């Protein structure tokens, strides 16, 4: 069997640009580019983007909720952000074996992605948020999102 060499991948911190993002100018710039570049007959292209966690929203109607229901309800009501949700979930996991197992599995998945890279990216679509800015609504990859959030807060 041939020897496999490990390829060094450039590491990015998905949370590095989460502070101080001006969503208003971003939304105007993106909308202006789409109007100028996309012709009516041009096919729609998919893009890979780095999106700050504060701008990402899992689908609240996901049939299989990932965070505990009591944390998820406050997160979707806007009473807590992703950092607070992850911190509360980690605290809950310390005293509950079931939550502890689930948190360890999600954090392990996030570590594996950091080590080996992500094969299938989180997918979703841009929607208008309650403040008029844009939010990235997750269609696939909610477990990857929460795993990354838990790992970031745990560190």
Pick out its properties.
single chain, 155 residues, mainly alpha, three-stranded mixed beta sheet, 5 helices, 45% helix, 10% strand
Report on this model:
It is a single chain. The protein has helices spanning 23-37, 69-76, 82-95, 97-116, 142-154, and strands spanning 56-57, 123-128, 134-140. The protein is mainly α and 155 residues long. The model is unreliable at 25-41 (pLDDT under 50). It is globular, with a radius of gyration of 18 Å. It has a 3-stranded mixed β-sheet with strand order 1-3-2.
Give the secondary structure arrangement, pairings included.
Elements: H1 23-37, E1 56-57, H2 69-76, H3 82-95, H4 97-116, E2 123-128, E3 134-140, H5 142-154
Parallel strand pairs: 1-3
Antiparallel strand pairs: 2-3
Overview in brief:
This protein has helices at 23-37, 69-76, 82-95, 97-116, 142-154, and strands at residues 56-57, 123-128, 134-140.
Name the quaternary structure.
single chain
Which geometry do the CA atoms define? globular
Percent helix, as a range, is 40-55%
The rounded Rg comes to 18 Å
Weakly predicted, low-confidence segments: 25-41
The mean pLDDT is 79
- Largest beta-sheet details: 3 strands, mixed
Order of helices and strands: HEHHHEEH
* Coarse structural class: mainly alpha
Tally of extended strands?
3
Give the DSSP E fraction (strand runs of 2 or more residues).
5-15%
Order of strands across the widest beta sheet? 1-3-2
- Calculate the terminal CA-CA distance, rounded to whole Å: 38 Å
Number of helices: 5
